[in-house]
Amino acid sequence: MKAGTADLATLGHRIRHFRGERGLTLDQLGELVDLAGSQLSLIENGKREPKLSTLDALSAALGVELAELLSREAPSRRAALELELGRAQASPLYASLGLPPIRASRGISDETLESIVGLHRELQRRASEAIATPEEARRANTEMRERMRERANFLPDIERLAEEQVRASGHRSGALTHREVSVMAERLGFKLIYVDDLPDSTRSITDLENGRIYLPPASIPGGHGLRSMALQAMAHRLLGHTPPASYDEFLWQRLEINYFAAACLMPQEASVAFLQEAKKERRLAIEDFRDAFGVTHEAAALRFTNLATSHLDMTLHFLRVAGDGALLKGYENDGLPLPTDVTGSIEGQWVCKKWSARTAFEHTNRTTENYQYTDTPAGTFWCATQTGRTDAAEFSITVGVPFNQAKWFRGRETTLRATSSCPDENCCRRAPDGLAERWSGRAWPSARLHAHVLSPLPSGTFPGVDDVEVYAFLEAHAEQ
Prior knowledge:
Protein name: Helix-turn-helix domain-containing protein
Strand order of the largest sheet: 5-4-8-7-6-9
Domain HTH cro/C1-type: 15-69
Number of domains: 3
Radius of gyration: 26 Å
Keywords: DNA-binding
Order of helices and strands: HHHHHHHHHHHEEEHHHHHEEHEEEEHH
InterPro entries: Cro/C1-type_HTH, Lambda_DNA-bd_dom_sf, TransReg_Diox_bact_type
Number of helices: 19
Organism: Agromyces soli
Helix content: 40-55%
């Protein structure tokens, strides 16, 4: 249950509590505030947010101060238990059990409600104990994803900064060139130098004393990687970053420099104009957006998430999924039920086998996007998925939207459709009874363990970076 939903539920309980103290029925109170009893019932059940004028009227009719009515405290012990039960039953942990929710009706005694809530607490405690040791990176990642979700994944200050820097480089249209990136660096007092001996733990190194940004000599086809790394290095200076004091700060700085680089490679004004025109013609496609600005498919997909809600008036989701089905990166503000562990973290969780992010691996034609509609407990979604491969493994990139927004995209006419009931484990995570009975206890698979799962980041000024190697590198190059 999200924070806003929880606040509405508490407000509803408080309204019901004060109405009960005044001995008023729903219809009687509704008549006092010029609201139908059925509409008032929706407010009391946390299913509708009342207008400010309605809150003022309720406050006056119930004889309580507005601040008292809006307090976030449960009005009674019974209400606190009902609210806690609602939060527990809305959690991914409970959803994974595939059990129906229990309605806290008046027929359920306080003692019974205490027992049910106690069981949920114990279930949560045991699940938390099974997650291994506290994982700061996962917690910080989860908090950062929620923070960006609240902002529609859009950072206007960095957008403006990127637009200013790109224009100052002389860039006017098309893909940002290496020369223009070099001009941007020179305006900041830096020279880009390409070397083949960067420490393995770094992507680039900025020599603040001598005004140099060291980059690797080669990158992915098209040079997007080199341009992006140079822009990220410049972003630290432009954004006034200081050595991070916490892992949270380190992750936020990394997000900001990635955002700045993307906003330079795909400037807001040109990108929005391109996307709005494509939407008008009902031919939105990440493939076209990618090709127009000379970036990778993933970069275009992520950039689309920055602009779609703020400038195209649509909600959406993004997924990067490994070939084994593990979710590597994700974002949503359209209600798609992303898989999470008990902490709310999505990284490393298995995506439903029926989603296009995984079915795309089964297609023989991988040169273009694959399209699919998927019916889920949260509604029907349309998705476009492109697969790719690194030296280590294959992956898929997915951008999707709710059914009613598919009309703006190329590929909306696809007849491919699937049904997913995840997080119910009966969907794709639990073997059929006959198969499970046949093989349970008769097999011992050897798991392929992702090495990074057990590898802590080396300590140092910057997490994951070997300071000794960096300082030795700078010393060697400072004399050249």
